[in-house]
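hey so u asked for the seq, here:
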Amino acid sequence: MIGSWITDIRHFLDEDGTISKLPPPAARLADYFGSIVEAVTSQIENNIPAIASGIRCRRRPGRKRCSGEIIASPDWQNALRIKWYCPVCGDNGIISGWQETMWDLR
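ran it, structure tokens below
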């Protein structure tokens, strides 16, 4: 069974709003979640229900990279969150705290 990522993206930032000095795996996660935020916020004004982000899934089921592309959207139940998922492997999550960060392209 796959768990869900519940992410407050501000946890990757320092007090100046830039990416904190992080270990490489954490920095890669920050880039990944930030890319999802950028993909959604660049289209948020168009009221698109969900977008194919162009971001490859990062999971490696069976040690083979998933072939899926992340689908993401604002959480229409809670506009302060972004929902995302991979239609191939089921990896999914919610990102909060993205407003007015470096990844917010509105």
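The two ends are 35 Å apart (CA to CA). Residues 100 and 106 are 9 Å apart (CA to CA).
lmk if thats what u needed
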